[in-house]
């Protein structure tokens, strides 16, 4: 498992770890039941504090992406894709709500906002 940390990123290190592990789970690179490195091993390999990795693992466990058993380690949880997609949809809805408010306030038509969204969506492919 390869985690790349950027000191120039706007995200805290633990969030970089969390988002990269979530992405590996969502892409299928990490499968349900597969073990992930211990906190100590990951911290050593990416040259960060164990406390930083612990925070990332706690977030992953809270969000349902990993299960941790004392003495056994941490493993990819079975039910994680639906949770992640729900979380991402909620974030997208917040951004779309903000865009709709800006559009209404500034008399930008729904049709125009829809076209702009379609352009951004297709541009990413």
Quickly list its features.
single chain; 60% helix; 3 strands; mainly alpha; elongated; 125 residues
Tell me about this structure.
Helix content is 60%, strand content 8%. It has helices spanning 13-27, 39-46, 50-62, 81-105, 110-123; strands spanning 35-36, 66-69, 73-76. Strands 1-3-2 form a three-stranded antiparallel β-sheet. Strand 2 and strand 3 form a beta hairpin. The radius of gyration is 18 Å and the shape is elongated. 15% of the residues are buried. The model has no long low-confidence stretch (mean pLDDT 90).
Question: What can be said about this structure in brief?
Answer:
The chain contains five helices and three strands.
Distance between the termini: 26 Å
Strand count, sense and barrel status of the largest sheet are:
3 strands, antiparallel
Query: Unreliable segments (pLDDT under 50, ≥5 consecutive)?
Result: none
Strand order of the largest sheet: 1-3-2
Overall, the morphology is elongated
Share of residues in strands: 5-15%
State Rg. 18 Å
Total strand segments: 3
Please work out how many helical segments DSSP would assign.
5
Oligomer: single chain
Helices and strands: which structural class? Answer: mainly alpha
The overall pLDDT, averaged over residues, is 90
* Percent in helix: 55-70%
H/E element order: HEHHEEHH
